[in-house]
Amino acid sequence: MKILPPISLLLLIVSCAPVNPLSPDSWRDVAPVHFAPGTAWYTPIATNATIDPQSTEWVKAMAAERGKSQPYLLTDDGGVAVFRATAASPKRRVRLEGGISGKRGLVPIPFPDWVLPDAGTDGHTVILSPDGALAFEFWNLHVLDGVFRAGQVAIVDMAGEGFHPGLSARASGFSLMAGLVWPGEYRLGSIRHALVFVWPRTRKGKPVFPATYSDGGGEHPATLAMGTRIRLDPAFDLDSFGLDDGRKAIFRALQVYGAWLGDTGSFAFKGLSPRSSRDNPWEGQPGYSAENGSIDLSALPVDRLQVMTVGAAGTNRVVVTFPDYYED
């Protein structure tokens, strides 16, 4: 389903009042911390962590992919648009056009006045509840005939682990909030969490912990299982690499925390969509291109990536959390 352009959306919404209590402009400065302390997103890779026996072959495939497209941090087209409702926000229904069998949609939930889904084909959008306790996460959020609709929704506990117990708005079961790079932390040059990355050849079914689902279609041994963790070789000297603080922070996070495979697509990492604010919080940041809607990460030494030991394969699951929020 085609996502309507911003003007079409705004014509359907009664006002454009700010939705984030901090004000949308604050996305430039804040580096939000979500989910419980000690979860996989905030736990550094152990010094005695092991490299998977197939790591060398997988990294060769990643290096070959680089010949087709350079890695990017996706923001405008492929990022995640995040908004927070307030107690004064009107309540709106969201109809489901797929996803959870037997569910027509959500009961009315507080819905911000300023909502523009990410411009990418996934239309990844998050609505935070007024108290910040829940994230209503949508895949392909759009407006049709004056009604908000989505292809998939997941409700995520923001004090939990950042993993949905089954299919979520992301193809791995990961929360859309997990692993995002925020403009504030990029500008400050300090990212203290794991990232989420996208890879074109993902394994059919058989996700590995912490992923709970996979939309992959590959069965060749060279494919990566959803939930695979990679890191940048900790021995690689970033200080002599001539990087700006933002990209250096991304590469340092890859050394310390790594990145989890969370979606299928061109090799990239996920950032906050600028549609989350009225102004563009990425504007003026080193490496950012408004034309490409991304930050260039071509300096990433892909040949120095390492694939951490891959766990036992699971099976795809579809689970409804917080069922009281759904309409049958």
Based on secondary structure, the structural category is: alpha+beta
- Spatial sequence of strands, sheet with the most strands: 14-15-1-13-10-12-11-16
Radius of gyration: 19 Å
In the predicted model, the low-confidence regions spanning at least 5 consecutive residues are 1-25
Task: Please bin the fraction of helical residues.
Answer: 10-25%
Written overview of the protein:
The chain is of the alpha+beta class and 328 residues long. The protein has a domain at 35-78 and 162-318. It contains 4 helices and 17 strands. The protein has helices at 6-12, 55-66, 183-188, 245-256; strands spanning 72-74, 81-84, 91-96, 105-110, 125-128, 134-139, 142-144, 147-150, 152-157, 195-199, 229-232, 259-264, 268-270, 288-289, 294-296, 305-307, 326-327. Strands 14-15-1-13-10-12-11-16 form an 8-stranded mixed beta sheet. A hairpin with a 2-residue loop joins strand 7 (142-144) and strand 8 (147-150). The longest helix has 12 residues, at 55-66. The protein is globular, with a radius of gyration of 19 Å. It starts with 5 loop residues before the first helix and ends with a strand. The model is unreliable at 1-25 (pLDDT under 50).
